[in-house]
């Protein structure tokens, strides 16, 4: 195999200045009256926003560090509407970007080129439920949780469960190949999507997946493509039968190091829990302060471990996990006695991000991956990076699959602090790559990490991705300036209205 080349003298993490990595946004475009009229003719006037006071809320996603003002926001109701929007924008050379709930954490749904946001929230119908074949087809604006709720009466559910599942959409999940606490055992979105309908950048409508097999695996290509290869207008997912039995255990340790060793021991014992999550002392304190959860005194780290499956053998597995935690110096281990206690444990895990919102005005959630065995090392490095930049970092993450979520706490009104957050985030991700991990586990690359892609991929790899993207979207109007490095197109951040007002 010929060598894959990467310029050894270049350091994408250093070269990406905070401003460049944070944006590249251009000011709003002034759209022609003719373009607006054509859009309104198909969608109706109540499906278009152009006034900045109304489009303002679409300037950010969950990451808040990459604001960009769209020139318009449109709300299609059908696949035909989406096709019309794509063809019209293309005819006027105006870029566009799909948007679900806007909970993304890498700046993916921002109209960086001042283009049109295609908000899919009105495409929120479940189109078909096939209980016999365990399939469900939905429009892209249906929320993740609504999928499971729609089939709960049949004892079925949709497995990938991002912590944002009450609001994030299945279209956004497909675009980011989202995961969640239970993906350790059940896999991420790509393992559960069996069919997609999408509008390609040339305006045509295609269906991929379904019962046809053979040829290129387009489902795998499109899942995780972050809305850069087309707009998903329908998704068919596989449903699973609810497990017969579930056991949930909370283990407290004095230090994250001890908790990390317990994680390795559980996996080394050949157990694949349904979920294996870690919360550090900063998160524990925030949860106690915000919601009055009472965790064991002296807890420097918590593990939430869940086993599920047939009733037979489940108690033995839970007992083995508890014993392994005790062997690794757990100061407290508690098996949830009933459904109410189990819900309480998950409430703590799922409200962790909300609790952090009370500790600092803002936080930036990073999303790096490391080999599980390197957990102790990376946690030490994250702590060191936080201290050096005088920033508090809280960790709540999917420990079982080595998917970290260091949350850097800050106040966006302090611009120096915001800059240090970007630099510290880059250093954390650099450490993940150096330890043999990667830049993203489930939040995507978006605009946030695009310049750092060169730290992970060789020139040839990136060139292949460029060629692939050009094959779908030669004019680069479909969610431009995301995922792939811009090669020096480092435009100064255009301040959002919100930032300008601060
Ligand atoms: C508190 C919190 C917790 C979270 N926990 C998790 C977690 O546990 N696991 C996890 O994986 N993520 C998590 N996330 C991140 C986020 O919720 C997911 O990435 C989610 O899939 C985004 O869905 P969305 O509908 O909000 O998409 P958006 O943010 O609106 O968009 C995300 C990307 O998808 C593209 N897109 C959206 N809809 C379409 C479509 N129909 N066709 C093509 N492209 C489209 C957009 O262009 C953008 O690039 C969390 C976020 C928050 C705020």
Tally of DSSP helical segments: 18
Helicity level: 25-40%
Please name the CATH architecture of one domain: 2-Layer Sandwich
- CATH topology of one domain, anyone? Uridine Diphospho-n-acetylenolpyruvylglucosamine Reductase, domain 3
> Low-confidence spans: pLDDT under 50, at least 5 residues?
16-23, 489-502
Distance between the termini: 54 Å
Shape descriptor: globular
Task: Look at the helices and sheets and give the structural class.
Answer: alpha+beta
Radius of gyration (Å): 23 Å
CATH class of one domain: Alpha Beta
Estimated share of beta-strand residues: 15-25%
Q: What compounds are bound to the protein?
A: flavin-adenine dinucleotide
How would you characterize the largest beta sheet? 7 strands, antiparallel
Strand order of the largest sheet: 15-12-14-13-17-18-16
Blueprint (SSEs and pairs):
Layout: H1 12-15, H2 18-22, H3 33-43, E1 48-49, H4 52-55, E2 72-74, H5 79-91, E3 96-99, E4 116-119, E5 126-130, E6 135-138, H6 144-151, E7 156-157, H7 170-176, H8 183-186, E8 193-199, E9 205-209, H9 218-222, E10 231-238, E11 240-241, E12 245-253, H10 256-268, E13 275-280, H11 281-291, E14 301-309, H12 314-327, E15 332-335, H13 339-350, H14 352-356, E16 362-365, H15 375-388, E17 393-397, E18 406-410, H16 415-434, H17 459-472, H18 497-501
Parallel strand pairs: 2-4, 3-4
Antiparallel strand pairs: 1-2, 5-6, 6-10, 7-11, 8-9, 8-10, 12-14, 12-15, 13-14, 13-17, 16-18, 17-18
Helix pairs in contact: 3-5, 10-12, 15-16
Bound molecules: flavin-adenine dinucleotide (FAD).
């Amino acid at each position: 195999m010929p060598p894959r080349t990467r310029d050894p003298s270049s350091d994408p993490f250093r070269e990406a200045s905070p401003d460049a990595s944070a944006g590249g946004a251009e000011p709003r475009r002034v759209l022609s009256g003719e373009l607006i009229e054509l859009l309104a003719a198909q969608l109706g006037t109540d499906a278009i926003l152009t006034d900045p006071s109304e489009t303002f809320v679409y300037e950010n996603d969950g990451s808040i560090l990459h604001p960009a003002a769209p020139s318009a926001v449109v709300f299609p109701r059908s696949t035909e509407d989406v096709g019309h929007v794509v063809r019209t924008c293309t005819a006027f050379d105006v870029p566009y970007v799909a948007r679900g709930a806007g909970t993304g954490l890498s700046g993916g749904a921002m109209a960086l080129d001042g283009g049109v946001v295609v908000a899919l929230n009105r495409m929120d119908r479940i189109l078909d439920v096939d209980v016999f074949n365990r399939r469900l087809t939905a429009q892209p604006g249906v929320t993740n949780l609504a999928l499971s709720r729609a089939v709960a009466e049949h004892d079925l559910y949709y497995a990938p469960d991002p912590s944002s599942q009450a609001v994030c959409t299945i279209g956004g999940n497909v675009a980011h190949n989202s995961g969640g606490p239970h993906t350790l055992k059940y896999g991420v979105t790509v393992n559960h999507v069996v069919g997609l309908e999408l509008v390609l950048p040339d305006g045509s409508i295609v269906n991929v997946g379904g019962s046809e097999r053979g040829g290129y695996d387009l489902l795998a290509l499109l899942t995780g493509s972050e809305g850069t290869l087309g707009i998903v207008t329908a998704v068919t997912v596989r449903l699973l039968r609810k497990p017969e039995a579930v056991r949930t255990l909370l283990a407290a340790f004095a230090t994250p190091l001890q908790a990390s060793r317990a994680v390795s021991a559980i996996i080394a014992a050949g157990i694949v829990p349904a979920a294996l999550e870690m919360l550090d002392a900063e998160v524990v304190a925030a949860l106690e302060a915000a919601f009055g959860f009472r965790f064991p005194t002296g807890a420097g780290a918590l593990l939430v471990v869940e086993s599920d499956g047939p009733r037979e053998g489940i108690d033995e597995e839970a007992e083995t996990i508890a014993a392994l935690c005790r062997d690794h110096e757990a100061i407290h281990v508690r098996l949830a006695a009933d459904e109410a206690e189990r819900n309480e444990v998950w409430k703590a895990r799922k409200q962790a991000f909300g609790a952090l919102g009370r500790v600092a005005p803002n936080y930036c959630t990073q999303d790096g991956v490391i080999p599980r065995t390197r957990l102790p090392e990376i946690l030490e490095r994250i702590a060191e990076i936080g201290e050096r930049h005088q920033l508090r970092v809280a960790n709540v993450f999917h420990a079982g699959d080595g998917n970290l979520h260091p949350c850097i706490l800050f106040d966006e009104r302090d611009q120096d602090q915001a800059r240090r957050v970007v630099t510290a985030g880059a250093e954390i991700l650099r450490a993940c790559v150096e330890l043999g991990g990667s830049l993203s586990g489930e939040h995507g690359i978006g605009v946030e990490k695009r310049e750092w892609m060169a730290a992970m991929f060789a020139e040839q790899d990136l060139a292949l991705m460029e060629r692939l993207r050009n094959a779908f979207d030669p004019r680069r109007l479909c969610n431009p300036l995301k995922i792939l490095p811009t090669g020096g197109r480092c435009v100064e951040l255009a301040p959002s209205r919100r930032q300008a007002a601060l």
